[in-house]
Amino acid sequence: MKFTGSDISVGALFGFVIVLTLVEMYFSYTHDRKLYTKRDTWTNVYLMLCAVVINLGMKFATFFLLDYCYQFRFFEISNVWLYWIVLVLAQDFLYWFLHTVGHYVRFFWAMHVTHHSSEHFNLTTGFRSTVFEPLYRVFFYLPLAFMGFTALDILFAYLVTQIYGNLVHTRTVGKLHPWFEYIFVTPSHHRVHHACNVRYLDKNMGMVLILWDRMFGTFQEEIPEDEIKYGLTTQPTDTGPVNIIFHEFIALKNDIKKAPKFTDKIKYIFNPPGWSHDGSTKIAKIMQQELKENEAKTNTIGSSLKVG
Fold this sequence. Notes:
The chain contains twelve helices and no strands. It is mainly α.
C-alpha cells in the first residue's frame, strides 16, 4: 500500500490531537481538575466510532457526487496558493452555514444535538460527533465542486479544518492574543458554543474563522459574569448508547404528534429548537431578548438606587 503526502499529513495531525488529548487527561488527573469522567469519555469515543462507520459507508458516494459535480465547474483557479486559500475560506464558510442550520432547524438539531449532550468540555468532546452528519454534509459542500475544486482537495481541506476544530475543545487554554481572538475560533469562543446558558445559546458557529460569526451576528464573547455551564438546556435522563443518539428524534416525534394542525407539524420540523405551537417553550432568540430586557431593567434600578 502506498501512502500519499496527504495521507501522511492527516495521519500526523490526528496523531498530534491524540497526544494532546492524553496530555490534557494527565494534566487533569495530576491537578485534580476533573475535566474528564470515564463514562463521558467512553461515550465520546462511542459516538466518534458510530460517525466513523457512517463516514466510511458514505465515502464512495461523497467522493462520487463531488467528482461528478466537478465536471460542471464554472471556473478554475490556476495559482496554487490562491487555489488553497480560496478553498479553505469557502469551505470554512460553508461549514459555518452547515453548523448554523444544525442549530436553527430542529430536524438537523436532532442529529447535531449529540455533539452538545456532554456536561463536560475537553479534547474528547471534539470526538463526540454528529453521527448522521456524513449523510447530508456533502450537499453543503457541492458549491466547492462547482467552483473548480477537486473532490480529493475538498475532502482534505475538510479533514484539516476538522482537526483544528477538535483542538479548540479545551478548558486548559484561556483567552489568546486579541488579534487571534478577533480572527480565529479559539477555545474561549468554542466554550461559549457548548454552553447551555441562555446568553450563549446558538453562538460561535465557526470552525476555523470566527469572522463569519462577527459578520452574521452569531458571535458572543465569553464573559466572567456568566460562568459557563456545559450541556443541553434539558439533559436527557437516559444517557444510554442508543438514546444519546435518538432522544431528540423521539422528542421531535412527540411534538409533531401533539400538534393540532398540519402546518404546526411542519413548523416543528423546520423551525428552531424550542419553538412550540402553544408557546409552552421558547426559541433561544426570544429567551436572549428577555434576558437583555431583564438585565436592562436591573441596571436601570441599580443606577436609580445609586443616584438616590
